Amino acid sequence: MYVGTSILDDIKTDETKVYGLNRNELFLNTVFALKANEVSEPIVTNGYIVVVQPTAVAVKAKEPAPIEAIRQEVAGYDITASNEAILHGSKTVDNVRQVYTKYLAK
Question: What is the number of other CB atoms lying within 10 angstroms of the CB of residue 68?
Fold first, then answer.
């Protein structure tokens, strides 16, 4: 998804004409495929016809190293969400019982 892109900050999605465009996959794929000054095909959404013409195209910044990316992502969570993300991550191994019996329960 297109989270954190500046275009989404500029769209007031509480207005009826553009409600939900920041979550509309067809709209986002169409808009982000356009080159600068290229005009989109008409997109029908919420009973309205939308035509988009970007005036500039931003270049994607170099992605940070994996650990830095994780640090930035986790920094955006509150403590509960951070714990949830860490504990249920795909690379998290639950070995609390083994560590307890090996090192603490002597």
Answer: 10
Within 10 Å of residue 104's Cβ, how many Cβ atoms? 7
End-to-end CA distance of the chain: give it in Å, rounded.
Answer: 49
Q: 3-state DSSP: the chain helix, strand, coil percent, rounded to 5? A: 45, 5, 50
Give the domain ranges of the chain. 6-50, 66-104
pTM of the entire predicted model: 0.41
pLDDT one-digit tens code per residue, 21-79: 777 888 888 888 888 899 999 988 878 888 888 888 777 777 666 787 777 777 776 77
Q: Which helix (H) or strand (E) holds 16?
A: none
Helix (H) or strand (E) holding 49: strand 48-50
Judge whether 61 and 68 are in contact, CB under 8 Å.
Answer: no
Beta-carbon contacts of 51 under 8 Å, excluding residues fewer than 6 positions away, are: 39, 40, 41, 42, 43
Read off the tokens for 84.
Answer: 């949830």
